[in-house]
Design a protein that fits this description.
Layout: E1 4-9, H1 23-32, E2 39-47, E3 54-59, E4 62-68, H2 72-77, H3 81-94, E5 100-104, E6 121-124, H4 129-133, H5 141-157, E7 163-166, H6 169-178, E8 183-186, E9 212-215, H7 225-236, E10 242-246, H8 251-260, E11 271-275, H9 279-288, E12 291-294, H10 303-311, E13 315-317, E14 334-335, H11 340-352, H12 354-371, H13 374-394, H14 401-404
Helix pairs in contact: 7-11, 10-12
Length: 411
């Protein structure tokens, strides 16, 4: 079997930035690194204030290349054009060294670097900024400006993408609309292995007299942190409970919303702001929690929901974007409108019906562990690469059956 020479374009952080990369990207890299006889993987990322224009690293059999690009403020001032130009110039000079280029997401304009190149390229759809922009609440002009600039690159260059990797019915439909005639390949994202070690569904409800609800969106408006607080206030009017908020959170911003909306049922001991958590801390929080709340404005396949399902923690979500491909109402979770009363009603229903909670958790865990099976995702990734290359070699525009046969099914 021929060795696959694959170049990844990702938003992988430079080692000097002190940040951890996207969990599912790191997990997939680790799995592919175990197949050295099948794939030679190179990961191309960018960083600011680097010592050299290009830096090279090697770790666990994977090659890493980082390009020195402008910092975030300068990047925005130039409407991303300088960073895009640097990335595009490097890829144009080196693309012939690889059999295929795999672009992870269009949000960071990475797909622009492959436009017009003869080397086959695959785009993994994460979230489409143009669609997210449509539901961005008013009052965030900087984010709106950034997303408008990003949308320009999406709408101009996505139409040239020939192969896309999708997960949900939502991103599949968007890809076919924005990239007419593209070949759609279905593959789910990798979930961190630590969540497979949990089985919250097998344990009795923690602290049944005072359930703990988990929200992993920090103070992000688009993740529904305001609706979560307002729903929790309604819940506290009926039962003792505690809300744990994880993620980047400014405490004053949270308490300001509580004061402004007069959420007087939330006492000082009812709310806990945890900030960013390690994987071990997240595992422990899931063990202690009654359910996960994820009332987002829009999402494709949020890993927080997937991780909770894999771990057997029940979820209450809004069926927006591609979430309907993860959660089937009353089978693998509970769904509500993006409305505090509707969210509170579903949570209270779960609190009052332990057999329902157990049934949802067990079924979601079964479906999610099959959906995110590491061996399946790894093999499907390699199969997609080979299917694209086989089609290119044959010179046919017909989609390759092995990569496009499985369509996403609502879980």
């Amino acid at each position: 079997m021929k060795l696959l020479r694959i170049l990844w374009l990702t938003a992988h952080p430079h080692p000097n930035e002190g940040e951890v990369g996207t969990p599912w990207i790191i997990s997939l890299i680790a799995q592919l690194a175990r197949r050295p006889n099948e794939i030679a993987l190179t990961v191309l990322g960018t960083g600011a204030d680097m010592a050299e224009p290009v830096e090279y690293y090697e770790a666990d059999g994977v090659n890493y290349i980082f390009l020195n690009t402008p910092g975030r403020r300068q990047d925005l001032v130039t409407l991303f054009s300088r960073r895009v130009a640097i990335l595009r110039a490097y890829v144009r000079h080196h693309h012939e060294e690889y059999d295929l280029i795999h672009v992870h997401g269009s949000e960071s304009q990475l797909h622009v670097a492959t436009a017009g190149l003869p080397t086959p390229a695959l785009l993994s759809v994460q979230g489409i900024v143009w669609e997210y922009l449509k539901v961005l609440p008013f009052g965030d002009p900087l984010r709106r400006f950034m997303w408008l600039a990003a949308s320009y690159y999406e709408l101009r260059y996505l139409r040239q993408v020939r192969d896309v990797s999708c997960r949900t019915t939502w991103d599949t439909a968007l890809s076919r609309r924005l990239s007419p005639g593209c070949h759609v390949h279905i593959n789910w994202e990798m979930i961190r292995p630590q969540f497979f070690e949990l089985n919250c569904a097998a344990e009795p409800a923690p602290e049944p007299g005072r359930p703990h609800f988990l929200f992993l969106g920090g103070a992000q408006v688009m993740k529904g942190f305001r609706e979560t607080l307002e729903a929790f206030n309604l819940i506290r009017q009926q039962i003792p409970a505690k809300l744990i908020i994880v993620g980047q959170t400014q405490p004053e911003r949270v308490h300001r919303h509580i004061r402004r909306k007069r959420l007087t049922a939330i006492g000082p001991d009812d709310l806990e702001l945890r900030g960013m958590q390690s994987i071990d801390e997240l595992q422990e929080l899931m063990r202690q929690s009654f359910c996960l709340l994820h009332p987002s404005y829009i999402d494709n396949s949020p890993n927080t929901v997937c991780e909770a399902q894999v771990a057997g923690l029940p979820v209450v979500v809004t069926l927006v974007g591609g979430v309907g491909s993860l959660v089937e109402h009353e089978r693998t979770g509970l769904a509500a409108r993006l409305d505090p009363r509707a969210i509170a009603d579903q949570v209270l229903r779960l609190c009052a019906d332990e057999p329902l909670r157990q049934r949802l958790a067990q079924e979601a865990m079964r479906v999610a562990r099959e959906r995110h099976d590491p061996a399946t995702i790894t093999q499907r990734t390699l199969d997609i690469y080979r299917a694209i290359l086989a089609r290119e070699k044959a010179g046919t525009g017909a989609p390759a059956a092995p990569a496009a046969a499985a369509m996403p099914v609502a879980s």
